[in-house]
Amino acid sequence: MASLEIRTAGPGCTVQDAGRRGHLRYGVTAAGPMDPLAFSVANKALGQDGEAAAIEVSLGGIELVARDAAVTVAIAGGAFSVSIEGRALPASVTLTLKPDETLRIRAGAAGAWCYLAVAGGIDVPAILGSRATHTRAGLGGFEGRALKAGDRLAIGESGRGAREPAEIVARWLDRPAKDIRVILGPQADFFAEDQIAAFFTGPWVLSPRSDRMAGFLDGPVLTHAKGHDIVSDGVVMGAVQVPGDGRPIVLMADRQPTGGYPKIATVIGPDLGRFAQIRPGAPFRFRAVTIEEAVAVRREEAARLSREVEMIPMLRTELSSEFLLGLNLIDGVVRD
Asked: Which UniProt keywords apply (predicted)?
């Protein structure tokens, strides 16, 4: 059976699938990808289920080797530096690693996370219906922890043939994050109008201590009008808490199930991945939208992405004569 052997892995590289849903009432959060769109694109580029387990690569990068058999992979997400046996490749690409070939992924021009999907998926045990890693809970993934040198990941059966490196045509993955859209949170009334204005004026930068649990923000110090403690209630990915020190925290994939700080805002679903891809030190601002606007954006993006993601396997295929003869083209063209 084919496998991938980890040679080096930076902090925070883990196995993730779409997440462990349906267990929040038991205190188990979903984990899953920091950038759900990029994760789905990597899997769809292989023509497989968008939820198959993949490797989430952090800014620390990863180096791995195919063992026992060829392994077909797809990479998507931030603009990372990708190479195979020292040969540079596009940041978003599909390729087949021959046995004993080395793939290197390093931080590149932009972005904080990228996804290495594998034809057949990463074959680790499913815990509570998911292979996603939650390192703080020691749950799922490879032994419940981040990947490290010497780990060997089994690959599921796929039946996919070998392929030459081909760029994934998905320019809409390039989503500038100067403005992150939010709706006002359930405890926005804990803040006076001038503090709400300061929240939207910013600017904010992501602290280096941010991780998969939360993004810690540096910028204006917010003050509370009604105190900084509430009765703990449920939190979602994208909830923006403001603790007693006045520095907002954006809860992310490995967030806790409940929180006792006022939530001034919530990042809308389509912008979660954009926020996740912000690098520490990069400035950005929050922009308010209504619930109705957020729902409309969600519907529009879901419809657009369902069309474009389904086209990825075709778009990334090289335009060989065999490929073109297999298409039904009538007075049309193939274009990206």
From this structure: ATP-binding, Hydrolase, Nucleotide-binding, Transferase
Q: Is 188 exposed, middle or buried (0-12, 13-18, 19+ CB in 10 A)?
A: middle
Distances (CA, A) of 45 to 35, 110, 116, 193: 16, 21, 11, 46
| Residue 267 pLDDT > 60 | yes
Domain positions in the chain: 3-173, 179-289
Q: How far is it, in rounded angstroms, from Cα 54 to Cα 48?
A: 12
> Residue 166: which pLDDT band, with cuts at 50, 70 and 90?
confident
Q: Is 214 exposed, middle or buried (0-12, 13-18, 19+ CB in 10 A)?
A: buried
Distance of alpha carbon 257 from alpha carbon 87, whole angstroms: 44
- pTM, full prediction: 0.89
What is the length of the chain?
336
Q: What average pLDDT does the segment 63-69 reach?
A: 96
In this predicted structure, the answer to whether residue 93 has a pLDDT above a threshold of 80 is yes
CATH architecture assigned to 179-289: Beta Barrel (2.40)
- Which of 92-101, 212-221, 323-332 is predicted least confidently? 323-332
Q: Give the 3-state secondary structure of 215-284.
A: EEEECCCCCCCCCCCCCCEECCCCEEECCCCCCCEEECCCCCCEECCCEEEEECHHHHHHHHCCCCCCEE
Cα distance between residue 252 and residue 58, in whole Å: 15
Smallest CA-to-CA distance from 276 within 78, 34, 39, 31 is with 34
Are the beta carbons of 38 and 274 closer than 8 angstroms?
no
